[in-house]
Every structure is written in structure tokens, then in C-alpha cells.
Amino acid sequence: MLSPNTLDPRSPLTHREFPVTHPMNFALRTLVATVVLFFLEAARHISWGEAASALLVCTVLCWIAVRSRAAGAELVATLAGFYFLLISVNTIPEGVLFDVIKVGQSPLMMVEQSGIGLAIACVIAVLFRPAREKPKVAPEAGLTIFGLLWRLVAAMVVFAVCYLVAGMLIFPLVKSYYASRTMPGLGAIAAAQVLRVLVLILAAWLVLRIVPKRRDARMILTVAFPVIGVLSLMLHPNEIMPPAVRWVHTMEMVPYYALFGFLLSTWFGPRRADCSARIAESGVLAPCDSDESTSIARNASSSGTKR
Questions:
Q1: pTM for this predicted structure
Q2: Residue 307 per-residue DSSP state
């Protein structure tokens, strides 16, 4: 029999019970994390761009921490992996491909960013440590092979089309910058985008597996992909790419990264049809939209009380 406490969304066991959900407390803890990330990344050059980048990244990572069901090592691994995938794996190979980053620089840059990601993930996990045990979440229904394949193909097609169209639109504005650099062939560019799509899907999966509410996951990925994967990087002052070129690429990439985050959360996130079945079978909240799961939880709670 299902007990009221198990499923009632107003029960202490179904919410993150700690005061950081208050806007002021969230802002203060995010500011602490921002200061830590700022000094980790700005050890060599301090600037307003570094400060803005650190604030954007920490706001998104702290948002994930507040909305997730994870804590401790699981939360640290998720945040560190999400940061590393978007900041390093998503961008450094592309820079090497277009002769913007030297091959010999890339391993050092990736190791450095992995260390920074782990450090800031640990800080955020401590700052947003829950006061009570997290609620259990029902396991998601797995995708069929056909369902997985069409999603992968659709993701690759959508990203490739957006990448090529946006690239062609802005190329006249950055043509002089790339004129002196060795440009890769079309096959190499296409292969790189396939790998980038897989990296973004993996990053999305890290968030989707710990954020119980579909609506929250969709909002987070729609914002996180362009903010961490594009804007935060372009705010970094560097000698590799002049400011004018960085801002052109920002205008190019932000729209389709936001679209891609939305699509991945929709295609790979929990499905509405599975919500009732998973709650009925497991007796715990399933990671579905809040309105739907709340309604189902109340019905189940009422049924359990009558029994």
C-alpha cells in the first residue's frame, strides 16, 4: 500500500528541504561559488569578462544543484562532467580543427579545465548540501532501439543544418580572420559536428538523470547550452581570438545552442505517458512534469489513505 508521505508533494520527503531555495540565500551561495571560480580561472588575467563568465557559469550550475535530486559525490560528478563537456570537449577540438588552438596546447587546456570543473563542483555541492534525505525517483522507462536511433539521427541533422546555415551567414564577417589559417575539409568538419552532437547529448543526459521535473530540465538545458557552451567562453579575454570575432561567433551560436538544448530535453527527457505507470509500479515520484506528477501523487495518496 502506498503511504501518503511517499507521494504527497507537500511532504518533507518530496522537496529539497534547505533554505537555499530562498532567492536571497541562493544568490549569496551563487556569489560565493562565483568568487571561487573567478579566482580559479583568472589566475593569469583578471578582468570584468572573467567575472561575468564566472557568474554565468555558477548561476547555471547552482540552478542545476537546486533542482536536482542528487547530492554528494553524485552531484559533484554530474556538475564536473557537465562543466568539462561544455567548456572543453565541446570547444577545444573545434579550435584545433580550425587552427585556432595549437594541438600541443589542447591537452594542457583540457586537464586544467577538468581540475577547475571538479573544484567548483565540490564547492557547489557543499554550498547546496540538502538538510534532509532526497526523495527516491522511479527509474525511467528505457528507449527502444528505434526510438534511440531516430533521436540520434534527428539530433545530428538538426545540429548540422544549424551549424552550416549559421556559419555561412557569419562567414563574410570573419573571413579575414580565418584567411591566414589552414581550413579543414568538409568531411572533417562534418565528422567533428557528429562528435560534438554526441558530446552535447551526453551533457544533456547528465542533467536529465538528476533533475526530476521535465519542465525544469527543459529550462535548464535551453539556458545552459548557450550560456556555458558559448557565452561564458566568449567573455574570456584571450590572445587567440579578437573581441570582434568572438562576438560574431556568439551571435552565431547562441540561438541554435538554445534550440538544441530544448530539443534534447524534449527528445531524451522523461515521457508523459510513462509517468503514471512508473509511479504505480515503484511507489515513488517519477521525473515528469510537476503538474502531472503532483496530480497523480495526490490521487495515489488519497487512494492509499482510503485503504
A1: 0.79
A2: -
